User: Which sequence fits this backbone?
């Protein structure tokens, strides 16, 4: 409780209860300090006080008067609404979105659709607990799986209904201040410490490809039907075949990208379902990205054992064609026909390309301020980074020198951050960066 707030609350309650105080005393209190009640405070100061209250204090203060009840309502609900796979998502969303006080508070919907692969999880549990004593091991394992078995029937009941198109359409229409949707399958939804530990091992995390694709499609369908102007969208494990759906479905998906300013997509690529329609999926992905003309922050990568070849993708998004080989004197300037005129932050990971095509794409971004190449990738705690960038032809040093020279001639400075396994196939360059590093720090990490 804030001391100044306590004093104001006491004085406010004295004045509000002045009818029960003898006339002279009430008049004396009112005349001596007539502007110490919450109703006389500037709204900015009142909001500042309310923002520092904990939940219990805020609930109590809203019982004092109608003014505090009205102004304190937005602080009861955080701007991000989280859902879990074992909770009844649809009724909860409908209830909150239909409340005239709480619905304006919601700015972000965070859908946790994470599921556990029980077969691999039990094996990972055994190996993770192998070195512990028998009694401790038995107790922790029993506690973990007992808690999971209680939640498993709830997940089976509620998760299939988590993205009902009609419900989401009604919710998106009612949440007029909603600007962001996040869907996660990589965050652990359980509180048990052992389950959190085995969740770090990739095989523990289940990916139902068909169900995940259908749920994300339902989100876009609801966005299209509700005419919601979404500003930010992210999915941390989206099956790549999502972009290989029928033209009728993609016509519903594409308008959802139109007003985006932030896009974060981690695409799960698997050879078995994706090898036959890679070109179609890339074509639809490019079409969706070209729709997002106001995009400012793009994070795009692939969750795969190897590296995804982006030559076709980068060439399609570049506004000009680069020469077959370039030097610092031959680097071209971006033209006004570039796709991403407002893109300031770009992250690419788990991909491979040539030096020429990658440089051509990067130099076609006139507003670029931050470039991040690589990430942690899909790895267990004891494994090396796998989310880096590979160059099939050319070299990283030549690439960075050419980019810097071109940006300096334009009078701008772009920050370059690197992480993961970086390799120049033709040049023989190799780095393994556990943490983000700048270009100048690469010398001490060279292996070959």
Assistant:
């Amino acid at each position: 409780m804030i001391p100044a707030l306590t004093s104001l609350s006491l004085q406010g309650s004295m004045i509000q209860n002045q009818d029960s105080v003898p006339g002279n005393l009430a008049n004396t209190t009112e005349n001596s300090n007539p502007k110490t009640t919450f109703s006389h405070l500037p709204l900015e100061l009142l909001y500042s006080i309310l923002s520092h209250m904990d939940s219990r204090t805020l609930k109590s203060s809203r019982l004092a008067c109608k003014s505090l009840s009205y102004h304190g309502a937005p602080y009861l609900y955080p701007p991000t609404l989280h859902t879990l796979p074992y909770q009844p998502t649809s009724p909860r969303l409908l209830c909150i979105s239909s409340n005239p006080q709480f619905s304006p508070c919601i700015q972000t919907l965070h859908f946790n659709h994470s599921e556990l692969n029980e077969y691999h999880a039990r094996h990972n549990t055994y190996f993770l607990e192998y070195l512990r004593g028998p009694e401790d091991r038995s107790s922790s394992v029993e506690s973990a799986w007992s808690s999971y078995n209680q939640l498993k029937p709830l997940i089976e009941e509620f998760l299939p209904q988590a993205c009902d198109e009609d419900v989401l359409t009604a919710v998106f229409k009612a949440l007029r201040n909603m600007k962001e949707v996040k869907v996660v399958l990589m965050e652990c939804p359980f509180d048990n410490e052992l389950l959190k530990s085995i969740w770090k091992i990739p095989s523990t995390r289940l990916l139902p490809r068909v169900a995940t694709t259908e749920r994300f499609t339902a989100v876009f369908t609801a966005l299209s039907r509700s005419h919601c102007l979404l500003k930010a969208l992210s999915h941390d494990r989206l099956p790549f075949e999502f972009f290989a759906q029928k033209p009728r479905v993609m016509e519903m998906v594409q308008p959802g990208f139109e007003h985006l300013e932030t896009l974060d997509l981690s695409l799960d690529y698997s050879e078995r379902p994706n090898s036959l329609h890679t070109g179609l999926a890339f074509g639809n992905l490019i079409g969706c990205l070209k729709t997002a003309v106001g995009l400012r922050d793009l994070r795009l990568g692939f969750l795969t054992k190897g590296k995804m070849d982006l030559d076709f993708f980068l060439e399609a998004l570049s506004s000009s064609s680069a020469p077959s080989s370039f030097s610092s004197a031959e680097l071209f300037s971006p033209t006004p026909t570039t796709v991403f005129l407002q893109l300031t932050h770009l992250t690419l990971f788990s991909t491979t390309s040539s030096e020429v095509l990658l440089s051509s794409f990067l130099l076609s971004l006139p507003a670029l301020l931050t470039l991040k190449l690589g990430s942690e990738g899909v790895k267990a705690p004891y494994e090396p980074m796998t989310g880096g960038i590979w160059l099939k032809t050319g070299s990283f040093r030549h690439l960075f020198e050419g980019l810097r020279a071109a940006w300096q001639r334009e009078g701008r400075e772009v920050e370059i951050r690197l992480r993961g396994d970086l390799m120049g196939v033709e040049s023989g360059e190799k780095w393994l960066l556990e943490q983000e590093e700048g270009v100048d720090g690469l010398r001490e990490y060279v292996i070959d």
Observations:
- The chain has 17 helices and 15 strands.
- Residues 1-30, 320-337, 444-448 have pLDDT under 50 and may be disordered.
- The CA atoms of residues 124 and 198 lie 6 Å apart.
